[in-house]
């Protein structure tokens, strides 16, 4: 991996070129424009390599990946084709260290990786659809670039508050982006998302500026482990930046529904007052629940960033922490929380790599 990581772009371009030349029938499983797709493969391989000695984490990751591939139309027989082209690309760009032993090791690793993915997809087929269709039932523009969308899935969609899904719009076929659910599971089965249109974000711009009630989108399976642990009653310290407030609102609703009276402290950060697009909802929740404290944190010309605000309160040593927002905020948020003494295993957040491709 250290040989190929510096030339990751070339390896992936060559890999897809090989794949589409040797197996043209597989081209239709991928989006027309391959730019974000390209680095997903290497990211997945790097993640697998990083956790190679941590079987439970690696298996869990690969099972999710296998289940997540069902919505693309991936089948078991596609895996050997991918493996052969992957090894073709790796051997070309790692030629200085590639030998029979390396190749045998990669064949073994790839075979194991793909088998875990294939088995997870097969098990999932027995209990869940490959994807869900969902109809947009309401679309509310909260600021010039943030919309709250409510959709009705065509079949029941089980998930936990704090999780996210992948979403495809009719305007950009086969381009999937991740969005967190902005509400706990509702009795009417509807799902809500907060979407911010980001520059060059095709999916997010379509969802904010184009989607209307009646449009049909597709959803992949739920994913993510940033969920409330109902086996303890420790407090929740929630740090949400921008549309990162969405899963936090869902978790607050979840705590409320469980009738628990554990302290929940929410820091809701935004670049300006105007960007606190969901503050009314959060303050309403605070009024309804004495155990909930909501603190808006607005950047003062970059002087006070969201993570800094947490240090002004506390102590937090009895709390589980949840961080959600832009990747840079998650990184500095996690650092700040560790600094104030919260152990890493009590800090939850979604994978920053997944969010880089998340758009909004
Ligand atoms: N589950 C999750 O973690 C979720 C993540 N998101 C992500 O949240 C982001 C939302 O974007 P916007 O609303 O435009 O956020 P934004 O850029 O307006 O920032 C929101 C807040 O985070 C702070 N912040 C931003 N970058 C920071 C950094 N490097 N260090 C410290 N603080 C920082 C800002 O000061 C502000 O208070 C998107 O990238 C989206 O993918 C959205 C929903 C759920």
Automatic annotation (TrEMBL):
Lineage at the top is: Bacteria, Bacillati, Actinomycetota, Actinomycetes, Kitasatosporales
Q: What EC number(s) does this enzyme carry?
A: 1.14.12.17
GO molecular function (one): oxygen carrier activity
Keywords of this protein's UniProt record, alphabetized? 2Fe-2S, Heme, Iron, Iron-sulfur, Metal-binding, NAD, NADP, Oxygen transport, Transport
Q: Which InterPro entries match?
A: Cbr1-like_FAD-bd_dom, FAD-bd_FR_type, Flavoprot_Pyr_Nucl_cyt_Rdtase, FNR_nucleotide-bd, Globin, Globin-like_sf, Globin/Proto, MRET
As its record notes, the protein acts as a catalyst of: 2 nitric oxide + NADPH + 2 O2 = 2 nitrate + NADP(+) + H(+); 2 nitric oxide + NADH + 2 O2 = 2 nitrate + NAD(+) + H(+)
Entries under PROSITE patterns matching the protein: FAD_FR, GLOBIN
**Cited SUPFAM superfamilies:** Ferredoxin reductase-like, C-terminal NADP-linked domain, Globin-like, Riboflavin synthase domain-like
**Family the UniProt entry places it in:** In the C-terminal section; belongs to the flavoprotein pyridine nucleotide cytochrome reductase family.
Q: Which cofactor does it need?
A: FAD; heme b
What name has this protein been given in UniProt?
nitric oxide dioxygenase
Give the organism, scientific name. Streptomyces curacoi
Any idea where the FAD-binding FR-type domain is? 129-229
Occurrences of domain Globin (ranges): 1-122
Q: What class of enzyme is it?
A: oxidoreductase
């Amino acid at each position: 991996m250290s040989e190929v990581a510096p030339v990751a772009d070339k390896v992936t371009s060559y890999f897809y070129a090989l794949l589409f030349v040797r197996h043209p029938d597989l081209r239709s499983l991928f989006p027309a424009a391959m730019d974000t797709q390209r680095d997903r493969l290497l990211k997945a391989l790097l993640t697998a390599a990083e956790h190679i000695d941590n079987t439970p984490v690696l298996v869990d990751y690969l099972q999710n990946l296998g289940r997540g591939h069902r919505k693309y139309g991936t089948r078991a027989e596609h895996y050997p084709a991918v493996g052969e082209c992957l090894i073709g690309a790796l051997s070309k760009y790692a030629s200085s260290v590639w030998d029979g032993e390396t190749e045998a090791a990669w064949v073994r690793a790839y075979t194991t990786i793909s088998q875990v993915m294939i088995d997870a997809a097969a098990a999932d087929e027995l209990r869940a659809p490959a994807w869900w269709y969902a109809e947009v039932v309401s679309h509310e523009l909260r600021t010039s670039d943030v919309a709250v969308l409510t959709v009705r899935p065509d079949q029941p969609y089980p998930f936990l508050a704090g999780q996210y899904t992948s979403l495809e719009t009719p305007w950009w076929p086969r381009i999937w982006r991740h969005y967190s659910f902005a509400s706990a599971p509702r009795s009417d089965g509807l799902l809500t998302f907060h979407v911010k249109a980001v520059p060059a974000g095709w999916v997010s711009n379509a969802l904010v500026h184009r989607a209307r009630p009646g449009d049909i989108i597709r959803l992949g399976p739920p994913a993510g482990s940033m969920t409330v642990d109902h086996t303890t009653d420790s407090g929740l310290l929630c740090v949400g930046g921008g549309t990162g407030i969405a899963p936090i609102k869902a978790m607050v609703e979840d705590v409320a529904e469980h009738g628990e009276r554990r302290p929940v402290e929410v820091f809701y950060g935004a670049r300006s007052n105007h960007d606190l697009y969901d503050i009314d909802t959060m303050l309403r929740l605070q009024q309804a629940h004495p155990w909930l404290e909501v603190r808006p944190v607005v950047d003062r010309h970059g002087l006070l960033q969201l993570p800094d605000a947490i240090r002004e309160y506390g102590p937090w040593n009895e709390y589980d922490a949840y961080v959600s927002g832009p990747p840079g905020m998650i990184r500095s948020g996690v650092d700040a929380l560790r600094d104030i003494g919260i152990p890493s295993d009590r800090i939850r957040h979604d994978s920053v790599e997944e969010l880089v491709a998340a758009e909004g």
